[in-house]
Amino acid sequence: MNDILEVRRVRSPFPRPQALVFAGGAAWVSSIETKRVYELDPASWSVRRDWAAPGTPWGLTSVGAELRAVCGEGEDDDRHIRRLVPATGFDAAFDVPCPDLEGSHLGWDGKTLHLNQWHRQRVLSLSPEGKILRAWPVPHQICGQVIVDGVVWLVSTDNEDSNDYWLTRLDRADGATVDVARIPLKARGLAFDGKNFWTNNRDQHEVVCFAPPQAGSRR
Question: Domain residues for 34?
């Protein structure tokens, strides 16, 4: 299997970047150290605005003009889906508990929110109330998700302490998964800017851009 083709690597302006999404002409990135979500200029990677999250912000996706975040809250790091409105910040009244209070990264297909659960190794589609509509098991632990043109792309691994991570494609029609490229770093989060993918090299405080794999590339 080929490694990803790295296009760009930038220093994060804050420590331990975790989740990221491109929306509204900005890059939105969370930090699990500062427990904030940042709006960044995608050209300079400078901070425009930032908001304190109601917990540790593990996952992000855009839903129209808003964002959704998975936040780990309380002593047990229980996972809740929260609403972030760019003009005003987090909506304290919006609180959707994740199934089993577990989950990290999010995807949005234009109609339905998708949540991955790392240890259960599955992707879920959710109702607005957080009920499971459908579940897709995957062969690896999942540490990033983005939906592009209806295709679910994942960052996955079998050992989070290694540098063996993969870009995995999930076909929701039949549940088939294919590992299409190796990501040789401890990746967290996955985003698409309309041309390239992005992920975080979290513990090195970096954000990494890489090209989509060539058609037909697989494990």
Answer: 6-210
User: Is residue 48, in this structure, part of any structural domain at all?
Assistant: yes
Count of other CB atoms within 10 angstroms of residue 155? 26
Parallel/antiparallel/unpaired status of strands 106-108 and 89-90: unpaired
What is the number of structural domains in the chain? Answer: 1
Task: Establish if 108 belongs to a structural domain.
Answer: yes
Nearest to 150 by CA among 205, 193, 196, 111: 111
On whether residue 27 sits in a domain, the answer given is yes
Side by side, the strands of the sheet bearing 206-210 are: 6-11, 206-210, 197-201, 187-192
Q: What's the Cα-to-Cα distance from 130 to each of 80, 108, 123, 153, 163, rounded to whole Å?
A: 9, 14, 13, 21, 33
**Which are the contacts of 162, defined by CB distance < 8 A and separation ≥ 6?**
none
Q: Is the pLDDT of residue 217 over 50?
A: no
The pair of structure tokens assigned to 3 is 């490694």
Strand partners, 40: 27, 47
Give the CA angle between residues 96, 102, 104 to the nearest 5°. 85
**pLDDT tens across 129-179, in order?**
999 999 999 999 999 999 999 999 999 999 998 889 999 999 999 999 999
The sheet that has 17-23: what strands, in order across it? 17-23, 26-31, 36-40, 47-52
State the CATH number of the domain containing residue 176.
Answer: 2.130.10.10
Q: Where are the beta strands (DSSP E) in 111-205?
A: 113-117, 122-126, 132-137, 141-148, 151-157, 165-170, 177-183, 187-192, 197-201
219, part of any domain: no
